[in-house]
């Protein structure tokens, strides 16, 4: 696993095992094959794509989007957590300042409501 303590200017795409103790001044996208452990700070959004694994021990100032990967949150999310697919674990002592929005449940409720109305 590559380990870095540096500051990264701009957005980054992660497609390998990578542990960051520094700062990303943009957004981070973790794609298939990526295994990202954040102990530092991501100043914007974090996107978790299918086939990736992310563990947040540090801080994401923006929103976190799980779009099909494996996501574990032990640290802080300054924005909201959006889960459209994949697996998401949020530790009890973690902090999410915004909303926790499960798009999976929203889709299921829409289908259930439509079925009941048709009956």
Q: Would you mind describing this structure in some detail?
A:
There is one protein chain. By secondary structure, the protein is mainly beta. It has one domain (2-118). Helices cover 13% and strands 50% of the residues. The protein is built from one helix and 16 strands. It has one helix spanning 103-118; strands spanning 2-4, 7-8, 12-14, 17-20, 23-24, 28-30, 35-38, 41-42, 46-48, 53-56, 59-60, 64-73, 76-77, 81-90, 95-96, 100-102. The longest helix is centred in the last third of the chain and has 16 residues, at 103-118. The model is unreliable at 106-119 (pLDDT under 50).
* Biggest pleated-sheet summary: 10 strands, parallel
Shape: globular
Structural class: mainly beta
- Overall average residue pLDDT: 89
For the termini, the CA-CA separation is 55 Å
Order of helices and strands: EEEEEEEEEEEEEEEEH
Number of strands: 16
Strand content: over 45%
Please compute the radius of gyration using only Cα atoms: 16 Å
Total number of domains = 1
What is the percent of helical residues?
10-25%
Descriptive labels:
1 helix; disordered C terminus; globular; 119 residues
Q: Short summary of the structure?
A:
The protein has 1 helix and 16 strands. By secondary structure, it is mainly beta.
How is this fold's topology laid out?
Blueprint: E1 2-4, E2 7-8, E3 12-14, E4 17-20, E5 23-24, E6 28-30, E7 35-38, E8 41-42, E9 46-48, E10 53-56, E11 59-60, E12 64-73, E13 76-77, E14 81-90, E15 95-96, E16 100-102, H1 103-118
Parallel strand pairs: 1-4, 2-5, 3-6, 4-7, 5-8, 6-9, 7-10, 8-11, 9-12, 10-12, 11-13, 12-14, 13-15, 14-16
